[in-house]
Write a structure and sequence with these properties.
CATH architecture of the domain at 12-23 and 36-99 and 219-369: 3-Layer(aba) Sandwich
Number of helices: 15
Radius of gyration: 21 Å
Structural class: alpha/beta
Strand order of the largest sheet: 7-3-2-8-9-10
Shape: globular
Strand content: 5-15%
Order of helices and strands: EHHEHHEHEHHHEHHEHEHEHEHEH
Distance between the termini: 71 Å
Helix content: 40-55%
CATH class of the domain at 12-23 and 36-99 and 219-369: Alpha Beta
Number of strands: 10
């Protein structure tokens, strides 16, 4: 007998407007003009090294990648990120599924970050209509259009809506492409399922985003800077909604992973900044670097001159320039240090608040180009 799946259609899904949130972008955002808290001399040396590498990498056309956890968005840092990409310092942004959600909720309604414990007890955590409905639909439509995860959401915010194909057109497309373009046919079938299941009307679906000036994904889409998302099934609140369709998420996330890996392939002489990402950033980086080394070695090359600057709050008592500590040392279990220390190149670890680090980076770059 087949195992029974959970029926998401039976959930009582409440309007997002009923949710109590803790972060409000208009009052809580960080302006790129703000000043950071002072750093120690040792920490400032790491920041200065990052600034120098950003300058050299931009001059040489090398990758300047910035991966971050969702807290960087909840902390209101989108305006600082936006300045970095507007000024041409960062060529790639990467985050997890939660980072996408917080950024979208800020752009859509101006606030995010619900009370998790209280809402789990009430059976309401993550079970909200607009976040689940619109983000999942944006991903299904985006996958159909051949967009990545972050790109699909960025386009949705920037264009303040979606274009929904007619059911008859999707059926015809599936039939036409099934033999010679099966992946495109499958993406059309995913969208057809959503059109039928939710009785979507063909044509323009307008979805205003009154706070889109704070939307980092929208800014990246507008500026043509890759913004990739690297989700895990079931990790994010959008998986609670019946609109969720993981096949479409997989299509979009696969594109994002390969875009990320392609930028890692150009990292020799470049810089990789990882801010507040304990799992996602080190995990996707090590696979991407391994693939990139594979191709480089086939061409008689090797990626060795890459600087990795890792920033998190946890203090480390190990000198990571010596390599990784033995497994009886607690620092061995700092995944975001240990993984990057194995990646060749040069790794620097800085224990700092992500707001102060990014502001110090902006100040340092401004001082160097004045």
């Amino acid at each position: 007998m087949p195992h029974k799946e959970f029926d998401r259609n039976a959930l009582e899904i409440r309007p997002l407007a009923e949710r109590e949130d803790r972060a409000f972008i208009e009052t809580d955002h960080v302006s790129p003009d703000e000043q950071p808290q002072p750093f120690s001399k040792e920490a400032q040396r790491v920041i200065d090294e990052a600034v120098e590498r950003l300058l050299a990498a931009r001059a040489a056309g090398k990758s300047r990648m910035l991966a971050f956890g969702a807290h960087a968005i909840k902390n209101g840092l989108a305006p600082v990120f936006i300045k970095l990409i507007e000024d041409g310092w960062i060529t790639h942004l990467a985050t997890n599924g939660a980072g996408v959600i917080h950024d979208w909720e800020f752009a859509f309604q101006g606030h995010t970050s619900e009370h998790v414990a209280k809402n789990v007890a009430a059976g309401r955590f993550g079970i909200w209509e607009e976040t689940g409905y619109y983000l999942n639909l944006a991903l299904v439509v985006g996958a159909y259009r051949g967009l990545g995860y972050g790109e699909a959401v960025g386009a949705f915010v920037d264009q303040e809506g979606l274009d929904i194909p007619a059911e008859e057109a999707l059926v015809a497309e599936i039939r036409e492409k099934a033999a010679d373009a099966p992946l495109e046919a499958a993406a059309a079938a995913d969208l057809l399922h959503a059109v039928r299941a939710f009785s979507l009307r063909p044509g323009r679906m307008d979805v205003p985003h009154p706070y889109k000036r704070f939307g980092l994904q929208a800014a990246a889409y507008r500026l043509g800077v890759p913004f990739t998302s690297h989700p895990m099934i079931g990790h994010d609140i959008i998986y609670t909604h019946p609109m969720n369709h993981c096949a479409a998420i997989g299509r979009a996330a696969q594109r994002d992973f390969l875009l990320f890996a392609n930028n890692v392939a150009n990292l020799d002489g470049g810089i990789y900044l990882s801010i507040g990402s304990a799992v996602m950033s080190p995990m996707i980086f090590e696979k991407s670097l391994s693939m990139s080394q594979n191709l480089a070695i086939q061409q008689g090359k090797h990626i060795d001159n890459h600087l990795m600057v890792i920033v998190d709050l946890q203090e480390s008592h190990w000198d990571w320039m010596q390599g990784e500590p033995p497994d009886d040392n607690p620092d061995y279990y700092l995944r975001y240090c240990k993984s990057f220390s194995r990646m060749g190149g040069a790794m620097r670890y800085l224990s700092a608040d992500n707001r102060d680090f990014l502001l110090a980076l902006v100040r340092g770059l401004e001082n160097r180009i004045e």
